Description:
The protein is an all-alpha fold. The protein contains 2 helices and no strands.
Amino acid sequence: xxxxxxxxxxxxxxxxxxxxxxxxxxxxxxxxxxxxxxxxxxxxxxxxxxxxxxxxxxxxxxxxxxxxxxxxxxxx
Length: 76
């Protein structure tokens, strides 16, 4: 039986990093929503501060990793 072509290791790592990043972002947003419903202001401030400071850097890092993986996979 014919096996499909396996992707490179960098593309597999990049997809796992992207999946983990999106799941953690979803969990953070659910926590923020629940803190807003329960009106727990210290947690809301902490989560918003965390999102404000680390989210742009994390997005840039993940997008660069995925971009490099896609380019290297297309060259392969």
